[in-house]
Specification:
35% strand; 22 strands; 6-stranded parallel beta sheet; mainly beta; 8-stranded mixed beta sheet; 175 residues
Length: 175
């Protein structure tokens, strides 16, 4: 389901959205850069799994590969991209340098909280919580909680329990 009003959608030929996925209003889904030629026989560049929820105002902008697993929850105003401006050549304005890119993966059952930024090269495991406003790049192991800018591990599931422990133990949660 796509919410109304929809956000910008560009390169829809290379976007695959799974079943029972909800995309809220004003979500931008984009593949490629203006004027960039993409092969119509190529596999999708941006894939969103089954039963996902993408919050209002989120932007997912892909050039090479962004893979979002099943049962992923993305809160409002999250930015996910697999490319970035290049600045290596100091003799050329940044806006004129060809962007760099690195694939992004978000594993099954993960939650990305409001305002987070997922940068090129992020490889986020399954059942991960990314805290509000976090900036993620690099590998995040399964069953962890990351927060901050840059994101760092603040909790992980080890040996059948969360370390450090949760403030309210699971057995105390209402049914």
């Amino acid at each position: 389901m796509l919410g109304f009003p929809p956000g910008d959608v560009f390169g829809e030929w290379w976007i695959a959205i799974g079943s029972k996925t909800l995309i809220a209003p004003e979500v931008t889904l984009s593949v490629g850069l203006p004027g960039e030629a993409l092969d119509h026989s190529a596999e999708p560049v941006l894939t969103i799994g089954d039963r996902c929820s993408i919050g209002r105002g989120t932007a997912i902008v892909a050039r090479r590969r962004i893979e979002i697993g099943d049962d992923v929850t993305i809160a409002p105003n999250v930015y996910v991209t697999d490319h970035n401006h290049a600045y290596a050549d100091v003799g050329v304005p940044i806006k004129e340098q060809y962007p760099t890119h690195d694939p992004v993966r978000i594993g099954d059952g993960t939650w990305i909280a409001a305002g987070a930024t997922i940068l090129p090269g992020a490889d986020i495991g399954g059942h991960v919580t990314v805290g509000a406003g976090a900036v993620v790049r690099g590998k995040v192991d399964d069953y962890t909680v990351v927060a901050g800018s840059p994101a760092r591990v603040v909790r992980r599931y080890e040996g059948g329990e969360w370390v450090p422990p949760l403030r309210t133990p699971v057995e105390d949660w209402p049914e």
